[in-house]
């Protein structure tokens, strides 16, 4: 077994990951997961469920448990004591809005927004994850005052088709495909940004997409979305009894591709190149491109709902600049400072941001 593929679950309490083999020593490829923000060392070995280490059927159970845990509606209290305690640690960004904005005075606010589950509701069919017109209006207004980027797991073209605002930066495929705005709004920084750190993987991704389409045939409800630098195997519409079979088939394909790794998001298995690049790296790149690489006068705000957004939250914590906002109705382990419950609250937060900026402008 030489396959470095790993599974990363959506909740830390669940089986965080199942390592199925060794690591690739090439400097380009993560040496490997060890350097990933989802560092395996975060989870001490004795915390791994026996099922993962025993292999065989038991390993499959671990996969299914992890897939089950990625459903945000299961086994969690939305209003209980746990939630109250969590809200103390991660207050509502609306509740402490004034406090947040006092940190933004005299600084350039830069907005980073995830798409699915942040600007649009999570829906059964990922092709229909449309954003509400009012949300688009809110994002459009925000972009009038602040450099704004969409950072999504989807491919850049697809997320652009949903958002359709040419004045934004777009970082698709978990930040592996970045492009600046086609219309000029902000004077500072480079508008003609283009960054594709995993470009050499494109032929491999296309090949694996074709194979996966074939392999998952026969599993009702399973679909594969080609997000260019990330292949998303959706199991939202798959009967739970078939999740193990689906995971096995995906893992079977990846055995032949040690340079790809498997991670898990909300009701989705994702296959990505094992390069050291993620949403966190993407926002560092964008801040640099905007001319705020070493600036103290910038306040980045990142809003997202998924495990992959944690990489970005972590970067902001490390920089000691700005803050992450996790969109979640349920308590989750997170590096975000604040929280919002759902996309409608994200919209309200963005609207308040615009109103705040307009009020500041009026007073000067
Ligand atoms: Mg999301």
Automatic annotation (TrEMBL):
The record, for Pfam families, names: Trehalose_PPase
Q: Which domain of life is it from?
A: Eukaryota
Q: Among its keywords, does the record have Hydrolase?
A: yes
This enzyme catalyses: alpha,alpha-trehalose 6-phosphate + H2O = alpha,alpha-trehalose + phosphate
Q: Name one GO molecular function term.
A: trehalose-phosphatase activity
Q: In which pathway does it act?
A: Glycan biosynthesis; trehalose biosynthesis
Keyword line: Hydrolase, Stress response
The record's annotation in CDD domains points to:
HAD_TPP
UniProt keyword Cell inner membrane, yes or no: no
Q: EC annotation?
A: 3.1.3.12
Obligatory cofactor(s): a divalent metal cation
Q: Which InterPro entries match?
A: HAD-like_sf, HAD-SF_hydro_IIB, HAD_sf, OTSB-like, Trehalose_PPase
Any one of the GO BP annotations: trehalose biosynthetic process
The protein's role, per its UniProt record: Removes the phosphate from trehalose 6-phosphate to produce free trehalose. Trehalose accumulation in plant may improve abiotic stress tolerance.
Similarity comment: family membership = Belongs to the trehalose phosphatase family.
Name of the protein in its database record: Trehalose 6-phosphate phosphatase
Organism whose genome encodes this protein: Artemisia annua
